[in-house]
Amino acid sequence: MLPQVIIIGRPNVGKSTLFNRLVGKKLALVDDQPGVTRDRRFGDAHLLGLDFQAVDTAGWEDDDPQSLPGRMRAQTEAALTGADVALFVIDARAGITPLDEEIARWLHGSQVPVILLANKAEGRAGESGILESYALGLGDPVPISAEHGEGVADLFEALLPHIEGREADKPIVDIDADEDRPLGPLKLAIVGRPNAGKSTLVNRMLGEERLLTGPEAGITRDSIAIDWTWRDEKAGEVREVRLIDTAGMRKKARVVDKLERLSVADARRAVDFAEVVVLLLDATKGLEHQDLKIASMVLEEGRALMIAINKWDIAENPSGLFNGIRQALDDGLAQVRGVPLLAVSARTGKGLDDMLRAGFDIREAWSKRVPTSALNRWFDDALAANPPPAPGGKRIKLRYITQAKTRPPGFVLFGTRLDMLPESYRRYLVNGIRRELGFDAVPIRLTLRSPKNPFKRD
């Protein structure tokens, strides 16, 4: 494990901007309004040769523990446990506030070393705030500008005594579309409409309140990735999973807030990062048109899709509900029939192991490569059983097919007059590949390619 550096401070002092600066990517959502970050976000950081894990946290607010800000504060307090050093960020331009003083008192009571950062210190506007910060009793403040990258060398010198010699080997790089690499951890994203129970589901799998949850819709804003080890009791083995929680996706017409648009865009990026996507439905609301739109988006991105009906423990007429959703999915997702449909309960844990096993199984199909000989034996049989049509009396000749890629599976069909091949015949071939060659309900790409005629004028 890399040394862990936690970023703490009241809302809107620039914690997420600093986090993004340290990890070198815009992982955390940033906006002018306070309270954007709600869940802890982890990222591998690199600062002038120092490697560590940075942890972005929600803004510290003095509020009722049962309220949303109070629950966010509890998440921040939990994040301090196990940290190697804390970066306490203040706004140098605003000066020291009573909330800054409260945070300083709390940090004095912990065993974690604290580095005081006076952010937004560019120019002369932050000078008075820097001087005021000495009263917090946390040593010399380090003036920085997270937005402009100023003060990086000073931050390096402050971190060096706490991190040097404690750096671990770099973590294994995430796999990408390169099919020659091993599969590695299952990258599983949970998506759905707001309040479907996505964060509660992840917490249940982890066995801890890792993500902020509650009755309020739209609590999750950032997509949060969590590495986790799942013990498959049925198979008697331990399997690695990277769980990705995402913000709820409402109908586009209802998304008017800038921050919600950013959250939805972040969720879409999380889908692109995932291998398998679980679309979580609310059993008390059934399947809605927005669910089908989300499912279509996942399939268009080429990701393996599963549907899980949450809150199954309180579903009315469960058998009728399940069959109704199954039929609606087959009708509404004509491009991929038979998408896995499971009943789960984030509250009780019902069906979660079955969901994870299905996730590993569908990833196998999504990553599968068929030998060219076996593929063309199937192809010859498919043509013999149902030859291509001859529109206008012109024969369409299909010569051979090859698998060009995996994750998702992509095939190239070679022949002549392929521009005249009806879409219905194309679907016939895709469905045959899926059914006969073991690709189940994963999205398949079929590209048509005709040889170039050297005698034809452009």
From TrEMBL:
Keyword annotations: GTP-binding, Nucleotide-binding, Repeat, Ribosome biogenesis
InterPro entries: G_ENGA, GTP-bd, GTPase_Der, KH_dom-like, KH_dom-like_a/b, P-loop_NTPase, Small_GTP-bd
Binding sites annotated in the UniProt record for GTP 2: 192-199, 245-249, 310-313
All copies of domain EngA-type G, residue ranges: 3-167, 186-367
A molecular function (GO) term: GTP binding
Any one of the GO BP annotations: ribosome biogenesis
Cross-referenced CDD domains: EngA1, EngA2
Residues noted as binding GTP 1 in the record, renumbered to the chain: 9-16, 56-60, 119-122
NCBIfam families membership: GTPase_EngA (TIGR03594), small_GTP (TIGR00231)
Record note on quaternary structure: Associates with the 50S ribosomal subunit.
Function: GTPase that plays an essential role in the late steps of ribosome biogenesis.
UniProt family annotation: Belongs to the TRAFAC class TrmE-Era-EngA-EngB-Septin-like GTPase superfamily. EngA (Der) GTPase family.
HAMAP family linked: GTPase_Der
Protein name as catalogued: GTPase Der
Organism taxonomic ancestry: Bacteria, Pseudomonadati, Pseudomonadota, Alphaproteobacteria, Sphingomonadales
Gene transcribed to yield this protein: der
